[in-house]
Write a structure and sequence with these properties.
single chain, mainly alpha, globular
Length: 413
């Protein structure tokens, strides 16, 4: 069988998404360094196979400069690079992706197809935990017995939160929400909603509620509403009516379902009755602002907040800020934050604009999905740190690269 670059791209995305969608699980069966080594070898092979086709234009060089700039921000004062280099390698893979993927557009249609399969894995996991809780506690939970998050996982189970086949209910909710966004975006691109797609959307939506996590749910819903209204701006009043009607129907069904599924009732209660909007994160936010005031221009270094916080409060926990933008400010300062936000917004706008241009019509579906995922990550950054965990980071970076890979390889542009 002939090994083509298309097959190698498929294998690469399988490895990358396998790492991303199973980061809390596979390490108990397969050592990190083996998976990372395979990913690096495959990326190296792709890089070598593409060498003869590389054509460095002014646009390419500007892109490479952007990657280099972000890389400098990442390594500047990064304590983790010394203390836990193997862990950092998972994040350094992102820069390998940024370098090799823009040289071709032959991979564009691969990753989002694979996301659907990995979403199915976590849909099954979520319903398995709900239907067979005793079996889950007997067979699955012992895997995490030596993990630092084992106690939290036990508390989540007893608190009507559903982590599925992951080590945390938040990660499970992120995976499911991504799957919902990808499928919804495909329906928008095709301008039709098949019965099977509708059923799958409802199944995934219920699974998201079953996790007991509200953040990804709220920002995921905002994402698909914005996408539905503005991907095609025609008939907006009619769309608003459909959204309102659909919201009433789904809301009514959820109220009924909440009487039988405690985690759904938990989400509804947290959405409408919770008085703690910050969810107990005020101390994290205040300390991040304190560090920003002390290190205004260049920050304390990427990923270092958790070490400063742990030392300052004499805590054994290593916590992120749970707000991407506050964490960027305290770790990279004004300079780093402006640079990163500039490229985040630039990439999202590029995907949005390109999906409306006829010259890129062959990739319209992928550009719509790319924009939706980027919008979701930008929004959820208000209450989470998606740039600091590979659960969302890999697919987000791939989505950022999509519009650049398409435009850089468009003949005659």
């Amino acid at each position: 069988m002939k090994i083509t670059i298309d097959k190698i791209f498929e294998f690469l995305f399988f490895i990358i998404l396998f790492i991303s969608y199973n980061v809390t699980l596979y390490g108990y069966f397969i050592p990190n360094y083996i998976v990372i080594s395979i990913a690096i070898l495959v990326m190296g092979l792709i890089f070598v196979m593409q060498l003869k086709n590389n054509n460095y234009t002014k646009k390419n060089m500007m892109y490479i400069f952007s990657v280099f700039l972000i890389f400098i921000i990442y390594i500047f004062r990064n304590k983790q690079l010394i203390d836990n280099f193997l862990s950092c390698t998972l994040y350094l893979l992102v820069f390998f992706l940024m370098v090799i993927l823009p040289n071709s557009d032959r991979w564009i249609k691969i990753p989002y197809k694979m996301v659907s399969y990995f979403t199915l894995e976590h849909v099954i996991g979520t319903y398995f935990v709900f239907l067979f809780p005793s079996l889950y506690e007997t067979l699955f939970l012992p895997i995490f017995r030596n993990s630092s998050g084992y106690a939290d996982l036990i508390n989540q189970i007893h608190g009507n939160m559903n982590a599925g086949f992951t080590g945390n209910y938040g990660a499970n909710s992120n995976y499911l929400t991504l799957g919902f966004i990808v499928l919804f975006s495909k329906c928008i691109a095709k301008k039709r909603l098949k019965k099977t797609d509708l059923i799958m959307l409802l199944v995934i939506l219920l699974a998201i509620f079953m996790t007991g996590k509200r953040g990804p749910l709220v920002f995921g819903i905002i994402t698909v509403i914005v996408e539905y209204l503005f991907t095609n701006k025609s008939k907006i009043p009619n769309k608003i009516f459909k959204l309102s009607l659909g919201g009433i129907i789904i809301g009514t069904v959820l109220i009924i379902v909440s009487n039988f599924i405690p985690s759904v009732a938990l989400v509804c209660d947290r959405l409408f009755n919770s008085t703690d909007v910050l969810n107990g994160r005020g101390q994290l936010y205040n300390y991040a602002l304190k560090l920003f005031n002390e290190h205004t221009f260049f920050g304390i270094g990427w990923g270092n907040f958790k070490y400063y916080y742990s030392t300052y409060y004499n805590s054994v926990q290593l916590l992120n800020v749970h707000n991407t933008y506050l964490q960027l400010l305290c770790e990279t300062g004004i300079v780093g934050t402006i640079i990163i936000l500039f490229y985040m917004i630039k990439s999202a706008l590029k995907s949005y604009k390109m999906q409306k241009q006829e010259i890129y019509s062959n990739y319209r579906e992928e550009l719509i999905i790319s924009f939706a995922i980027q919008l979701f990550v930008i929004l959820i950054g208000v209450s989470s740190t998606p740039l600091y965990g590979i659960e969302l980071l890999y697919i987000y970076i791939i989505s950022c690269i999509v519009p650049f890979a398409i435009s850089l390889n468009k003949k005659g542009e």
